[in-house]
Specification:
two-stranded antiparallel sheet, 8 strands, 230 residues, 36% helix, single chain
Length: 230
């Protein structure tokens, strides 16, 4: 029964993939002007099946190849990317002091379903870790594109504030190796991982794809929304 479901999903994906934007098919192709980029919304199984399949290779990876955190989306605000993400995701807004020091505030870490305070107790997780991105296509990017990836606030799923414990447990593992411990987080996590890879034209390996298809099979009704990166 699972094979039949996956075959049906794959068939639907094949037809729909033909209409997907160029960034999904090949990250190296020129990006469309920002004004013409339209968000895509796909059923999770179709979205997973649209991901390119490739063998991963970590040769040459260094974390310093991805410059972060930079001055963020609003350099004039004095807050770097980390602080801007924290401000965007705050459940209770913190006070902002000199040098963008954040005091107070409350956040919710969906990986482990925990309320968190203060800001220093949180990590900003790259949904698709930097090492995984390198393995999946970012090794071929320019330094400027890798910096844009590492500081991406153009899609909420790309960077997420979570407990330091859950982020460090995840490390650089893909969904075949690690999933968030909160049961209610699974469908969201699978969708956001897939959205990030589609946004940046990144590939998946066979085990990663199979795990994502397993997640999709149990997450009927879940959509994946992504906007191709500029």
């Amino acid at each position: 029964m699972m094979i039949m479901k996956q075959s049906a999903v794959a068939a639907a994906a094949l037809a729909l993939t033909l209409s997907l934007p160029p960034a999904v098919h090949a990250a190296a192709e020129p990006a469309a002007p920002a004004s013409s980029v339209v968000p895509q919304v796909l059923p999770i199984g179709v979205a997973v099946s649209a991901l390119p399949l490739a063998v991963e290779d970590r040769t040459g990876y260094q974390r310093t190849s991805f410059r972060h955190w930079n001055a963020g989306d609003v350099p004039a605000d004095g807050c770097n990317t980390r602080a801007e993400v924290l401000l965007a995701e705050a459940v209770v807004y913190p006070e902002i002091g000199p040098g963008c020091t954040l005091t107070g505030g409350v956040w919710w870490s969906y990986y482990d379903d925990r309320e968190v305070t203060p800001a220093g107790a949180l990590d900003i997780d790259h949904m698709v870790p930097l090492a995984e991105a390198w393995d999946s296509g970012a090794a071929e990017w320019t330094a400027a594109r890798r910096e844009a990836y590492a500081n991406d606030q153009g899609q909420p799923a790309s960077l997420v504030a979570v407990t330091a414990r859950s982020n460090r447990s995840k490390a650089d593992q893909d969904p075949a190796e690690w999933l968030p411990p909160a049961p209610d987080a699974l469908c969201r996590y699978g969708a956001e991982w897939t959205a990030t890879k589609l946004r940046w034209g990144l590939a998946v390996d066979e085990m990663e794809r199979d795990r994502l298809l397993d997640i999709a099979a149990g997450c009927g009704g879940t959509s994946v929304e992504f906007t191709p990166a500029p």
